[in-house]
Amino acid sequence: MHTVVMTKGVPDFREGQVSFDEDGHLERGKTPTVMNPNDKHALRAAFQTKVRNGGHVSLMSMGPPGYKEVLQEGMRDVYADDLYLLSDREMGAADTWATAMTVATGLQNLDDQPDLVFAGFKTADGETGHTGPQTCWCLDWPMITHVVSLDIDEDAGTVRAKRLVDGDISEIETVEAPMPCFIVADPEFEPTYRKASHRLNHKDLRDETQERAEEYEDYLTVWDHEDLNLDPDYIGLDGSPTIVSGVDPIPKAPSEREATIIEADDSEALVPILDELTPYAVGD
């Protein structure tokens, strides 16, 4: 069983204002970046298949060299056996379509073709939710979206999943699809480990991946457009039909909250604070 998880770096808005160039493109190399939060749901879903069914989990991203640390974050915080970064200047400033074409080619370039590819619901910056489905379209695979739980039947070569209907938590349907298959994990996805052996395996694998993340570059493969035999005219900015008409930078919010500082040994000052907070603690 080989599963691959697609991920992307997104601006870490906690660090303040992100950087844009004069054409309105996000300058990712100059912007503090973290792993897209929704992709961690996808990675947890893939990790569940590893714990329950064994196999191999790869984490793949397309972006600047700094995305190595995004991949390391995924390996450390959730799980990955190995990492793949698709990166060079020709891939820069790609829209979702050019990104999907590049990532689909990266998936096809793997020595061991995946049984399942996981993607997050949407990214925290673009929020289009396009890249996963477009990559699936390039591969011509079946796809299940808004997945909240799944089970793998390796003998039958199928995946059975529960998904939200129209993204609505109040309505859930069960669907089945043959592998290879594309899975878009919903933020409501919660991994389940019913057996004690699964829980023990989960703990052991988490310890292993955290240790592996310390030397993550030993498990990292970097491919450029030549490695993937991609025509620069069809990837990156040149291959992107989307036109950015404008963007509004998001400034760091000012800190306007007032704070009362009380020393721990000042019991008299603590009395009115405790009197004020006690009703909330008891639910009044």
Automatic annotation (TrEMBL):
Domain of life of the organism encoding this protein: Archaea
Can you name the source organism?
A: Haloarcula amylolytica JCM 13557
Output the InterPro entries linked to this UniProt entry: ETF_a/b_N, ETF_b, Rossmann-like_a/b/a_fold
Which parts of the sequence belong to the Electron transfer flavoprotein alpha/beta-subunit N-terminal domain? 23-215
Name the PANTHER family on file. Answer: ELECTRON TRANSFER FLAVOPROTEIN BETA-SUBUNIT, PROTEIN FIXA
Protein known as:
Electron transfer flavoprotein subunit beta
Q: Tell me a Gene Ontology molecular-function term this record carries.
A: electron transfer activity
Q: Which Pfam families match?
A: ETF (PF01012)
